[in-house]
Amino acid sequence: MDNTFHPLFYGFHFYLFGLIAIASAILFVTRKSPVAAALWLINVMFCLAVLYVMLDAQFIGAIQVLVYAGAIMVVFLFVVMLLNLGQPDDLADIRGTGPRLAAGAVGLAILAEVMVLARSRIQGEYAPAAAVELLVPAADAVGGVIAPVAGPLFREHLLAFELTSILLLAAIVGAVVIGKKQGPADAR
Amino acid sequence: MSGLDPMQLEPGLWPFLIATVVKMLVIFTIYMVVVAYTTLAERKVSAWIQDRHGPNRVGPWGLFQVLADGVKNFLKEETMPGEVNKPLFLLAPAVAFTCALVAWAVIPFGAPLPTPWGRIDLVVADLPIGFLYTLAITSIGVYGIVLAGWSSNNKYALLGGLRSSAQMVSYEVAMGLSTVCVLLIAGNVSLPGIIAQQVETSWNIGLLSVAAFLFLVSAFAETNRVPFDLPEAESELIAGYHSEYSAMKFSLFFIAEYANMLTASALFVTFFLGGWDIPFTSWDNTGPATVAKALATFGMFAAKVLFFVFFYIWIRWTLPRFRYDQLMSLGWKFMLPVALAYVVVVASALLGLDAAGIARGTRAFTLSLVGLNAVLLVLLFVILDRGRIISPAASRLERERVERLRRVAAARTTIAPGELR
Description:
The complex is a heterodimer of chains A (about 190) and B (about 425).
Chain A: H1 7-30, H2 34-54, H3 58-82, H4 97-122, H5 128-135, H6 147-155, H7 158-180
Chain B: H1 6-49, H2 65-75, H3 86-102, E1 113-115, E2 118-120, H4 130-140, H5 142-151, H6 155-186, H7 191-200, H8 204-207, H9 209-222, H10 234-237, H11 247-272, H12 291-316, H13 324-355, H14 363-385, H15 399-414
Antiparallel strand pairs in B: 1-2
Helix pairs in contact in B: 1-11, 1-12, 2-11, 3-5, 3-11, 5-6, 6-7, 6-9, 6-13, 9-11, 9-13, 11-12
């Protein structure tokens, strides 16, 4: 297989999955049924995974599906189903028009900020040739596609990595402690 | 194939695309036929195990039973229960079926096939992250069951969906951790890379026996097969998550179960049994690729996979179902700690062997790892055998009570009938 770059192919899929992601995200925040909302969120994650793969970050793409869509959202759905939160009427949005408008304004402000920050990168015409030079890693090298992620993670950012894992461990222990706390009536 | 001159790359694209489409069609066809015949094999093997004949009316030896079943399922009435969540009710079988199918895409099923248009790798999609892709797809597969359970608006279906999500998430952890050892040895996440490593050293079932055992057990749980078929435990939940489905929608779940079984077998073969590697000869993986090698390796791969399909069926008609708490305590209190500890052991062993200057692929490397695994396996099965972890009916805690009951029973049998009057 060759690794030549096909701008039309790339561009078509970028806009296709970008649009699907945005549409799914809008559906995600507007659905009233929590199960439907969760499923649209999963769709957003799939689209993000596709975009990662298109950037040749295949490892990140697979992990996106594996961790977010495959584990976290399953637990979300599990809780939603366990608590039987499926009835949309119980969960009608109690917020009024004012807060909604304010939330929309904040969203627009963040979007504008992102676009201003990214302007230097996406301005001008789309420059695929330069991008390919940078983005296509040597997948045949030893370690495959994981080495470019693992190297910096475990060498340069080892301290941050370990601190994050301690933070996560503390959160898990905390969850277990809270989960185990029982009133005198429940105590065995 | 060598890709420096762009003039040589462009003609390679069309043969590649055409070959990929052909491979997809061929694999899909073979896969569906094998899945269909696996359902027949299940009935035949169960009949053999239970000393019956099994289906033998349709065609010679009942071979056309599969067609009859298929036609029946297509012609049956599609029921749509009231108050179901219709989009999700329709989506769920499709999700289950699709996830079962697409996981097969990255599994290499033979040595490369030479053609006039270039060397075609016998794998539908040679992803550099093939391993993670399979894990990701199996983690998505749970949605089919969960959504079916939830959208059916039936308490038994919901319970089945809840059970399956808890079970699959739990055993996915053990499954992922057990395969980490394979990655440690292979140093690669592409499935052809893992097979190449096993060709160089030796099969991972010897080097990583404990991981192979853990993977096999978790694969049973992931595919919802007996003894882990709690999501559809018919004595408790009618038919579990697919209680409300009929005709072809039910059939899709059924196909998905068997397809998952086939995929799990293929993954086990790829990770631990050398994939398409033919044992005790290096004819198949040295020298130029030939058609004979491609066919022989494909046959080898098929034989290994079908053996594990038989193994699945064998287990199903041999073991009873776990209780739900046994299932969860096995997953979290036994499989997960053992898998974690085993990752540490394997990592230290590899580090130690590297430090001792024993290169991978040498006899000393293989023997030391096999010896380590033999010791660990004996320890593991001795611990498992004592009933300390899964707590069967006569566990250690209840031993005194069992003894007392046995004494009572023995006393009863020794009393002659006349003495009771």
